[in-house]
Amino acid sequence: MLLPEFEFHEPTTMPEACEIMGRLREKARPLAGGTDLIVNMKKKLVRPEHVVSLAKIGDLQGIVRENGFLKIGACVTAAEIAGSDAVEKTFRALAEGARVLGSPLIRNLASIAGNVVSARPAADLPPALMVYGARAILVKTSGERSVDLNDFFKGPGKTVMEPDEILTRIIIEIPQGCYGDSYIKLGVRQTLEISLVNVAAFISLDNPDGPMNKARIVLGSVGPTPIRALSAEEVLRGQSPTDGLFARAGEAAAGDARPIDDFRGSAEYRRDMVAVLTRRALNAALDRARSR
Predict the structure, then answer these.
(1) 176-208 per-position pLDDT tens digit
(2) Least confident range of 112-121, 150-159, 188-197, 253-262
(3) What is the CATH number of the domain that holds 246?
(4) Is residue 1 part of a domain?
(5) Where would I find the beta strands (DSSP E) of 141-177?
(6) Please, which residues bridge with residue 23 across strands?
(7) DSSP H stretches of helix in the chain
(8) Which DSSP category does 56 fall into?
(9) Are residues 46 and 97 in the same domain?
């Protein structure tokens, strides 16, 4: 499939990129890795008149630990996230999500910004980011704003971003104390798989043998956007972890899910798998919390 005609822009600074996006607005699309945008352009799902490459903007690269936060530049790839010691040691669920995103070739190209702004319901990185309370930094000519990823997604392919905004980085507060995290993805194949269900879990304990003071569960591929399983979180909060408690949380998460039937799996199967994967993710998070 051939790409439609478009004008290519290659700014080297954020002010230059913002000026282009502010002038062209709906006629332009920013390009980071291109694994979503280019495919959609070939399929004629989107036909921007202008493509604005972000690849030469140095400020959009790098993973930096600073002032109690991890800051990930928009053009950082899934492979870089998966291979980062800072991510692996502190945000294990995010590293796990990055490792199962597509194939090695795709991971070498796909950017964190692209995986987020494409707003695909089955995307791997959004649940793994949301479970930590991550925020997206959006920039345009008139300034920048910070958006909680829980409020970022509005539907398949739809976000709160304005046409002239660029996602420049993802910021995650580094958890403290006795916490654990996990990401599990279910698909038909081992690689190049679109999730049937994915689950990210985060728990924080008062002490290795104590009750949970925080619990977050985010579900992917079982609704039009990633879903916080608030009912399941309420089951867990303030309770001491047990197999029975995690099973009840899994059932509550299944009730929070809003899956559909499609050629890859039925809604009933997906809902059942939400319960199973939530329990598994919580157990993995608990093991990691107790080992910290």
Answers:
(1) 999 999 999 997 555 555 788 999 999 999 998
(2) 188-197
(3) 3.30.390.50
(4) no
(5) 143-148, 153-155, 158-159, 166-173
(6) none
(7) 14-24, 37-42, 78-82, 85-90, 92-99, 104-109, 112-117, 125-130, 230-236, 243-256, 267-291
(8) T
(9) no
Mean pLDDT is lowest, of 35-44, 111-120, 128-137, for 35-44
Least confident of 41-55, 109-123, 202-216, 257-271: 257-271
CATH number at residue 27: 3.30.43.10
Q: Could you tell me the two tokens for 124?
A: 């791997």
Does residue 239 come out as left (phi exceeding 0), alpha (psi in the -120 to 50 range) or beta? Answer: beta
Q: Which two tokens stand for residue 257?
A: 């899910």
Q: What are 202-259's pLDDT values in tens digits?
A: 999 999 888 999 999 999 999 999 999 999 999 999 999 999 999 999 999 999 999 9
Do 88 and 116 have their domain in common?
Answer: yes
Q: What are phi and psi of 262, to 5 degrees?
A: -150, -175
Nearest alpha carbon to residue 271 among 248, 256, 254? 254
DSSP state of 111: B
The count of domains in the chain is 3
3 state DSSP class of 127: helix
